[in-house]
Amino acid sequence: MVVSDSLPSGRATILRVRGPLEFKCHLPSTDAPLMLKVISRTFETLKSQVKSESCVLTVCDSPVIIWPNKSVFITPEEITPNAPCEDILKWIQSEEQDPAGMRSAKKKSKKSSAASVINLRLMMEATTTGPLSAPILTRTVQKSHFLSTAIPVDCVVRTTVNETIKDAFERLLKALTRQLCEMEKVTLQHTKGTKLLVPEPLHFLLPDPKGLVTVVYPAGVPDSQLEARRKELHQQFELPDDCPYFRRANTYHFPNEPYKDGYLRNPHLVLTHPTLDNGKVYLVQGTYSYHHYMQDHMDDNGWGCAYRSLQTICSWFQQQGYVERAVPSHKETQQALVDVGDKKASFVGSRQWIGSIEVQAVLNQLLGVTSKIMFVSQGSELASKGRELANHFLTEGTPVMIGGGVLAHTILGVAWSETSGQIRYLILDPHYTGAEDLQVITDKGWCGWKGADFWDQTAYYNLCLPLRPKVF
Predict the structure, then answer these.
(1) Diameter of the chain by CA atoms?
(2) In DSSP terms, which residues pair with 148 in a beta bridge?
(3) DSSP letter string, 231-291
(4) Contact status, residue 306 vs residue 353, Cβ threshold 8 Å
């Protein structure tokens, strides 16, 4: 499918509406054609509800309520249907707000460079105005099946510059109706017997200029069983078939939406790139989690740096959709090395170090990922590896683990000048022991750009450069 809505690199406002719609229907029999007909009829009822005057959209963290089908009636009255859609942002409460509950100008300007998201909840008024009537009770005795579930709508549109609230919400309602049509199609396709698979809308941000796309999958069906559907999507959007774009792990993470696991993502994005004469910057591609000492209630201070670098690399493969396996614990890493015959059984549960070669073995054993190993006999030679590292980040884009002496680090990118040979390394340091504080981590250099003198000039180093599997 389904909805394709480009997200520009500059300022944008996104309307995102979520909420459950109650899906209820009686099936007088389990006859397949009749069941499908009843399910379709129930979806038509849901579409009618969305188009009715009972449909209400509430703006999260604000007093704003909108009745989109009542001539776009809005409360508070200060907001008019012909006002720019982005005016709603002023009413959304945030950490920095004035006593009136409106977002401060400082906060607004700070966020103006990124997409702003207006989160909405879809609701239905339970009562309607009209003449009172006496209830009529009837009783029918018959055997039937009753299907009941919540349909989780999640619809997104991007507003254009100065688009009015009225126009934007009209488009949003049309997009929501289209989504219900797609959800109906998926439900009918995957319904077996009296088992109803709930349709699940997911958003994916594709490379420019394709933008944000919404796809409806059947909930509970694993990615491994949706390969044919993904292949269709890759062909539809003219995407290469050697890289995942439509696995569940690839779903778009909306701005300011917290990650539930508590790990920081991509702390390097807030850093300023170094300037080199005729230099270019080559960075890790995609999303990773920052893993470091003392996380997960594990005291590995002084011995676990390579384990943490491995976890960061594993998180990259997981969050790009290459693997579904969770990031391995220290014990799971040790067990994997025992399983491949690299270590004895007594290694499991120990506090022994590992290096780049062990990281390569674990990636292959647990994730099926192959890696290239780069050897340098002394740290001073790393400055001559700019071309190889730049090519790795350009073609593979994976984090690199480097081990030497008693220390391990993660390389996230390089700034390299082909003409002068100057080089800087973007380092993610697993030796950090503090809280997940982005400012501390970047200000203190736990994630930062380092020069060639960062490495021990006389120590040997091994680098593990993981390679992308060719899958979609």
Answers:
(1) 92
(2) 24
(3) HHHHHHTT--TTS-SSSGGGB---TTPPPTT---B-GGGGSPPP--TTEEEEE--S--B--
(4) yes
The C-alpha atoms of residue 442 and residue 438 are separated, in whole angstroms, by 6
Instruction: Name which of 425, 364, 361, 430 is nearest 389 in CA terms.
Output: 425
Count Cβ atoms below 10 Å from residue 171 Cβ, excluding itself: 16
Summarize the confidence of residues 369-397 as an average pLDDT. Answer: 96
Amino acid at the residue 79: I
pLDDT at 55 over 50: yes
- What is the spatial distance between Cα 268 and Cα 439, in angstroms, rounded to a whole number? 11
Question: Which pTM does this prediction carry?
Answer: 0.86
For residues 298 and 304, the answer to whether their CB atoms sit within 8 Å is yes
Chain-centroid distance of CA 362 in Å reads 25
Positions marked catalytic? 305, 429, 431
Rg (CA), the chain: 27
Residue type, 446: W
Look up tokens 């579409």; give the residue.
47
Q: Do the bridges between strand 12-27 and strand 115-124 make them parallel or antiparallel, or are there none, so unpaired?
A: parallel
Instruction: Work out the average pLDDT over 306-323.
Output: 97
Cα separation, 163 vs 234, in Å, equals: 32
Distances (CA, A) of 288 to 206, 239, 330: 18, 22, 18
In Å, what is the CA distance from 253 to each residue of 117, 203, 260, 290, 324? 11, 9, 12, 17, 17
> pLDDT by residue (tens digit) across 243-289?
999 999 999 999 878 899 999 999 999 999 999 999 999 999 999 99
Closest by CA to 209, choosing from 394, 8, 14, 11, is 8
SS3 144: coil
pLDDT digits (tens, 9 = 90+) for 188-201: 998 877 778 899 99
Beta-ladder partners of 123: 56
48, 159, 201 from 117: Cα distances, Å: 27, 10, 18
- Beta partners for 279? 417
Question: How many Å separate Cα 247 from the centre of its chain?
Answer: 11
How far are the Cα atoms of 62, 88, 90, 92, 96 from residue 100, in angstroms, in the given order? Answer: 11, 14, 10, 11, 12
- Round to whole Å and give the CA distance between 351 and 349: 7
Residue 119 token pair: 């989160």
Name the residue type at position 135: P
